[in-house]
């Protein structure tokens, strides 16, 4: 909230100093004690040379059909000639003059520029008459559009030629922009902020006083109220003001509004906004003569009901959910959020109805979110308003309508609901405060902080009984009171102590090291880490899961329809990542993700959380890199299997086997294998089913998903590293004619068992099936590499080991050596 310190001073017994040094110190104190300060500045910033001037005469420009020549009284001995194209300039007006040498903010670029005398179509202009937008006002707070012309002071604004326009407009008033937390709704009002600043500076607060004069015409003869359900509006009342004159607000009120970041509209609307800023209580004014029925009806929206709000949007209301203020059956406003155009106050309005209420905060928040319509009013109703000030703000607004709009306040306030606030009485002891804060405060010192906060209390021995005022809805338990003591005592003043008890060196557990090792291994294999949402749709949650569909974990109150269910697999999220990358012209993709999946248990139990790792490959690859080149080749099942195999080998899992399977409904039935360590199931690897990838116009995608807990349970040896041998390798090639049902894995397993201890690598470099081979036969060719870490191998040793391999293969598979 933007807090004008000049306005705040109206409520403090000892005003705040407004010089730059004092404001800096205040901002620091607020940030340390209360809430964060987003910024503090003035509208004027570095501008100068702006004065109030009176237009003495306006004459046509001889060489222009849209510019005029004016003579201006700026409080100097001689009039100043100004050439302007302002459409609204007229003799007798009090306007803003930027004199020659003035520094003003350029309306287009926002930069600071220096004015000089210029010739416009042959006529000299010694300055510039300006609109508020040309001196730093944002369009959102300027009372008139830029196209309407220059700013004109009102007849009762009390300005004279030569006055400093920056001071007259309140542009030099420092404004603190506080970044409020949701619980500090009290600081959404100037009075609530005054109490906060007063507590920090030990200054008393004086709330505003006003006089309400009622006329003879009774209010209840002009309007009545009906509330369907008391829970919709526990407090609701109306004031009627007759014979108002709608016009611009006086300058003092406009200054308060634009320094608070709000745009002045007219005196009636400005009064309601002024009360909202002062008391934190949103009000709304209706044009009484525009109501179709003289009955205000507070109800929930009907079926197929719509309402055009003040922003010009036709909004379809949600039946039974949105609170509507209606006249008869005609909707007037979306309660607590925004008014409607049908009863809008305009220049022709003569009789008004002012509404003051407290609406159900849960329903207001739901309505604001549903319609994406977050207003100043809804922000306050959602967080909680001062229960005791609702009708005070309403009466004060009626009094101002009398003063500023020449209205006549009808006799009587029409109250339809006035539930009493449930009083909050809390107690605490000095012992408890000191135990929590580590201080040594006595009862009198603690009570002094409640005096600063203007809380009423009673002292009973060591106990303090505190009555929490309605302006502080954030205080409801003992801990809240202790927090108030800590804030005012000063967090920097709390005693510092070292932790006590036995200490242990911090380090990662074995499980944590292994999980981090998983990420390092997969990244070393060329995969990039992806992070997907844990929450997804029920369909994606089950897409690659292996449990039954009735065991999903769903949220009772999801944020959106596509984030309702906790994931049970990682592959679905990675597939979404592939789709996203492919849509952005990235086709060679290698990703992995490591994270938790959630499996539901019985209704009264928390879901099981299991650590998984998954990966995907698609596109092209080179023999030893993921980069695309002349030798690019599409990835296949063996590339994905190689990633899994390398990972399991490096993490320390032995006795790994792969069994072809077709049981995974969303994986290719002919290119998918289950992964086992011994007899324990670890996960699966294969091609994602073409019906999924083709639907997204993707190339073939290969993936795996493993249960990390199962993988790590089968890590039976720590990974050790040996130095690279300094001695040369020797290799032998062998081509085998074998039965077609014999797998390469079986051949390689036999080679390793029979090759002796010098074999370091076996590589399948050729597979052939087709012509010139016997039926049901295939040819497999391997390179066997031999090396010794301690000495140079000799031919005799290698030949002996190679012959042993040949004998083993012939004995096991009846192979023919080609």
UniProtKB/TrEMBL annotation:
<dbReference type="InterPro" id="IPR009061">
    <property type="entry name" value="DNA-bd_dom_put_sf"/>
</dbReference>
<dbReference type="GO" id="GO:0140096">
    <property type="term" value="F:catalytic activity, acting on a protein"/>
</dbReference>
<feature type="binding site">
    <location>
        <position position="474"/>
    </location>
    <ligand>
        <name>Mg(2+)</name>
    </ligand>
</feature>
<dbReference type="GO" id="GO:0009328">
    <property type="term" value="C:phenylalanine-tRNA ligase complex"/>
</dbReference>
<feature type="binding site">
    <location>
        <position position="483"/>
    </location>
    <ligand>
        <name>Mg(2+)</name>
    </ligand>
</feature>
<dbReference type="Pfam" id="PF03147">
    <property type="entry name" value="FDX-ACB"/>
</dbReference>
<dbReference type="InterPro" id="IPR002547">
    <property type="entry name" value="tRNA-bd_dom"/>
</dbReference>
<comment type="subunit">
    <text>Tetramer of two alpha and two beta subunits.</text>
</comment>
<keyword id="KW-0479">Metal-binding</keyword>
<keyword id="KW-0436">Ligase</keyword>
<dbReference type="GO" id="GO:0000049">
    <property type="term" value="F:tRNA binding"/>
</dbReference>
<dbReference type="InterPro" id="IPR004532">
    <property type="entry name" value="Phe-tRNA-ligase_IIc_bsu_bact"/>
</dbReference>
<keyword id="KW-0067">ATP-binding</keyword>
<feature type="domain" description="TRNA-binding">
    <location>
        <begin position="44"/>
        <end position="166"/>
    </location>
</feature>
<protein>
    <recommendedName>
        <fullName>Phenylalanine--tRNA ligase beta subunit</fullName>
        <ecNumber>6.1.1.20</ecNumber>
    </recommendedName>
</protein>
<keyword id="KW-0820">tRNA-binding</keyword>
<dbReference type="GO" id="GO:0006432">
    <property type="term" value="P:phenylalanyl-tRNA aminoacylation"/>
</dbReference>
<keyword id="KW-0648">Protein biosynthesis</keyword>
<dbReference type="InterPro" id="IPR005121">
    <property type="entry name" value="Fdx_antiC-bd"/>
</dbReference>
<dbReference type="InterPro" id="IPR012340">
    <property type="entry name" value="NA-bd_OB-fold"/>
</dbReference>
<dbReference type="InterPro" id="IPR045864">
    <property type="entry name" value="aa-tRNA-synth_II/BPL/LPL"/>
</dbReference>
<keyword id="KW-0963">Cytoplasm</keyword>
<feature type="domain" description="FDX-ACB">
    <location>
        <begin position="725"/>
        <end position="818"/>
    </location>
</feature>
<dbReference type="Pfam" id="PF03483">
    <property type="entry name" value="B3_4"/>
</dbReference>
<dbReference type="GO" id="GO:0004826">
    <property type="term" value="F:phenylalanine-tRNA ligase activity"/>
</dbReference>
<dbReference type="Pfam" id="PF17759">
    <property type="entry name" value="tRNA_synthFbeta"/>
</dbReference>
<dbReference type="InterPro" id="IPR036690">
    <property type="entry name" value="Fdx_antiC-bd_sf"/>
</dbReference>
<dbReference type="Pfam" id="PF01588">
    <property type="entry name" value="tRNA_bind"/>
</dbReference>
<feature type="domain" description="B5">
    <location>
        <begin position="421"/>
        <end position="496"/>
    </location>
</feature>
<dbReference type="InterPro" id="IPR005146">
    <property type="entry name" value="B3/B4_tRNA-bd"/>
</dbReference>
<keyword id="KW-0547">Nucleotide-binding</keyword>
<dbReference type="InterPro" id="IPR005147">
    <property type="entry name" value="tRNA_synthase_B5-dom"/>
</dbReference>
<dbReference type="InterPro" id="IPR020825">
    <property type="entry name" value="Phe-tRNA_synthase-like_B3/B4"/>
</dbReference>
<feature type="binding site">
    <location>
        <position position="480"/>
    </location>
    <ligand>
        <name>Mg(2+)</name>
    </ligand>
</feature>
<comment type="similarity">
    <text>Belongs to the phenylalanyl-tRNA synthetase beta subunit family. Type 1 subfamily.</text>
</comment>
<dbReference type="InterPro" id="IPR033714">
    <property type="entry name" value="tRNA_bind_bactPheRS"/>
</dbReference>
<dbReference type="GO" id="GO:0016740">
    <property type="term" value="F:transferase activity"/>
</dbReference>
<keyword id="KW-0460">Magnesium</keyword>
<dbReference type="InterPro" id="IPR041616">
    <property type="entry name" value="PheRS_beta_core"/>
</dbReference>
<dbReference type="GO" id="GO:0005524">
    <property type="term" value="F:ATP binding"/>
</dbReference>
<keyword id="KW-0694">RNA-binding</keyword>
<feature type="binding site">
    <location>
        <position position="484"/>
    </location>
    <ligand>
        <name>Mg(2+)</name>
    </ligand>
</feature>
